[in-house]
Design a protein that fits this description.
This protein has 2 domains: about 140 residues, Medium-chain alcohol dehydrogenases, catalytic domain (Quinone Oxidoreductase, Chain A, domain 1), CATH 3.90.180; about 170 residues, NAD(P)-binding Rossmann-like Domain (Rossmann fold, 3-Layer(aba) Sandwich). The protein has 8 helices and 18 strands. Helix 2 crosses helix 3 and helix 2 crosses helix 7. It is globular, with a radius of gyration of 20 Å. The chain is α/β, with parallel strands linked by helices. The structure holds NADP nicotinamide-adenine-dinucleotide phosphate. NADP nicotinamide-adenine-dinucleotide phosphate binds next to helix 1, helix 2 and helix 3.
């Protein structure tokens, strides 16, 4: 690479301040890494929250991406010029090159896949984090059967259940409904705003409830009674909201005592387990109010299982799996950073956001 290329990046510094940087620092790929020209980067609440809540700074922001391979190591499975997508590692001390909201990034090649024609690049850039997190919840924590290649896993096969997904119209929830259906889980109960109920039913939910309704818990229990259940066996909080009673506690009140309770964010209640998007390597975090950093060990087999489910979603994209809404942002880097801040608290509402790279200058 020549040093004349400009790298426009969204950055968090050592004082936890968020900036745009424009310089000629093109990241250098390590031995088993690819150098990638970023075409789209997918936005996630983690892009901001990992700095503010988990101590991951200074670094460049972003985990999800799609782009073109510029450089591959000798013997790599990838070739220069190929269109790829994937996600990058997390944790305290994360190198700046792993940030995906920048014009050029580096990524370990075992966190990258080839983008097939059925998967648009902007959708590919939004897929990996939410699909891997959901797959960890459903296939490693709940241990549901993997989705098959044929559409034989219909609700009639009833492989596991009942399942409750709280906040099913988050991007994680949208993945969860489709994976659960493809695995033959039945019944699939979900909570979401009423305007999402038709969509969620089409994707595989068997019963939809309004999480803002004062009778939501009774309504869920009444439907469970119709199936002769007193609670759900599997409960997945896909939103991690702490407003009011909190989404995790609302959900837990609909579950059996011995149910498996999963929440996408850390819960004080020890009955809950949390899925992780990145289980391939150990992850060190500095959680606010804890005196020392914590290290979460790798779960390599679990990672392989989740990765196989991601590849199922890629292969069947548009036929049996999809992200319903992907909005594309093309504009100034400063405005992109503001979008990420709004997104951090699920404040953008429904759907994914993909940033087009390179991000534009302040004055255009
Ligand atoms: N553990 C991990 O590795 C990991 C990985 C990825 C994400 N996460 C976490 O997972 C959560 C979801 O992320 P995401 O990117 O999927 O979110 P998202 O797509 O930005 O979610 C937006 C949706 O949140 C829903 N929502 C907001 N408040 C709600 C509430 N109180 N109850 C139910 N639904 C509510 C809204 O649904 P309606 O339109 O129906 O109102 C809205 O459409 C975030 O907390 C994120 O930090 C964790």
């Amino acid at each position: 690479m020549t040093s004349k290329l400009l790298n426009v990046a969204l950055h968090v510094d050592e004082n936890m301040a968020f900036h745009v940087s424009r310089d000629e620092n093109i990241p250098k790929a390590g031995d088993e890494e690819l150098l990638i020209e970023t075409h789209f980067s997918g936005a996630n609440p983690a892009d901001i929250k990992h700095a503010t809540h988990l101590g991951i700074y200074p670094t460049r922001l972003g985990y999800d991406f799609s782009g073109k391979v510029l450089k591959a190591p000798p013997g790599s499975a990838f070739k220069v010029g190929q269109t790829v997508a994937g996600y990058t590692p997390t944790g305290v001390g994360r190198p700046a090159g792993y940030g995906t909201h920048q014009s050029y990034l580096v990524c370990p090649e075992n966190m990258v896949y080839l983008v097939p024609e059925n998967l648009p690049s902007d959708h590919a850039a939004c897929l990996t984090v939410v699909a891997m997190t959901t797959a960890d919840a459903l296939y490693n924590l709940f241990k549901f059967p993997l989705p098959g290649d044929s559409a034989q896993n219909t609700p009639a096969s009833k492989t596991a259940g009942p399942l409750l997904i709280w906040g099913a119209s988050t991007s994680v929830g949208i993945c969860a409904v489709q994976f659960a259906k493809a695995s033959g889980v039945f019944p699939i109960l979900v909570s979401a705003s009423p305007e999402r109920h038709a969509l969620l039913s089409e994707l595989g939910a068997t019963h939809c409830f309004d999480y803002k309704s004062p009778s939501v818990i009774e309504d869920i229990k009444a439907v469970l009674k119709e199936y002769h259940f007193d609670g759900v066996s599997y409960a997945f909080d896909a939103v991690g909201s702490f407003s009011g009673l909190g989404s995790a506690q609302m959900m837990a009140s609909c579950a059996y005592k011995d149910a498996i309770l999963v929440s996408v964010v850390v819960q004080k209640d020890p009955r809950f387990v949390m899925p992780l998007a990145t289980t391939n390597e150990e992850v060190t975090l500095k959680i606010a109010n804890l005196p020392h950093p914590i290290t979460i060990p790798a779960r390599k087999e679990d990672h392989q299982r989740a990765w196989s489910v991601l590849q199922w979603a890629v292969k069947h994209y548009r036929s049996r799996f999809r992200l319903v809404s992907v909005e594309v942002f093309q504009g100034r880097a400063e405005d992109a950073l503001e979008e990420l801040k709004i997104l951090a608290d699920t404040g953008r509402g429904f759907g994914k956001l993909a940033l087009v790279h390179p991000l534009l200058p302040l004055f255009v």
